[in-house]
Amino acid sequence: QVQLVESGGALVQPGGSLRVSCAASGFTFTTPTMAWFRQAPGKEREFVAALDRRGVNTNYADSVKDRFIISRDNAKNTMFLQRNSLKPEDTAVYYCAATSTATSMPKNFSSWYAYWGQGTQVTVSS
Description:
Structural class: mainly beta
């Protein structure tokens, strides 16, 4: 069974930093492209960042580019999202997603990803 488990969500101060992780299991024959999406209260789910299966090709939303860094450790089947210079508008539930097949295309739309985690809450507030 494919499972994605996010962790590391927390309450942080504006301007602070936070790293969340996504542990993937059940991908027996493929190494998927993985991505982060988020959904803030009263807003639609939006794309944050994505990383291809080799950890080379990245795709960032304009709102987080130069502040967030996506990375992965394939040996541990884990993806990370380092978030710096956090703003109150970064407050959201952050979801991990993965493709069902091997790909080097980190797309920015949700239908590209077949598997989703349950999300981890990140709150940026004073």
